[in-house]
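Project standup — Tuesday

K.O.: blocked on the structure for the chain from last sprint. Re-posting the sequence here as requested.
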Amino acid sequence: MERYHLQDTGFTLIELLIAMGISLLLLAGIYNFCISQVKTYAVQDQLVEMQQNARMGLDLLVRALEVAGYDPLETRAFGITRDDFLASNDAELALTTDRELYFTADWNENGSIDNSADERFGFRVNSHSLQQALISPADGQISAWQSVVENIESMTITYTYADGTESADVGLPDNSLPGRTLHDIRMVTITITAKTRQPDYGYTHPTLGDHYRRITLTAKVLLRNQG
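H.V.: unblocked you, prediction finished:
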């Protein structure tokens, strides 16, 4: 009588372990790929946001400066000033900082600097945001600051005078100095630096040594109401 032996058709323990190991390696590769893609997307998203913030901040300042010094009655009181909004032709007026921007405009054409947000403008960078001054109608002074663009790290203002010199080289506007008075200003250069909202630990800034990416934009604004 002929006998038949059934051959084993299952997997050995070693074969199962090998298969499981290969599967785990494949899963780990897929996981790392997905994580890498998520991180890349997050970084790109932050870069786009950073660029938009820088452009928004710069555009806001450029548009605002278009009215600086509007003075239809030619009083010479309007233009670049300081945070107390002193008349631009005041003999005592001298700027002390290139990190903030203040100016006036005779929006209602009455020849005086009124206590109005339409005639007094102030901008600064503080707490990593571009802020605009809120003007008190009671006394015309700054009552508070409102953040208008987030993640702006710094702002620098450079003034170009009628003789072509720049405040970065010869000093800030000062009404007591010939050639550097507030009415000698012909152009304002704004430099803004924006940074990403969150750090990217795969990147190290070459100068600052932190993990934030930055972008610096510059705009030159001819003061059409002066000169």
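K.O.: great, moving the ticket to review. The CA atoms of residues 134 and 144 lie 5 Å apart. The chain has a mean pLDDT of 91.
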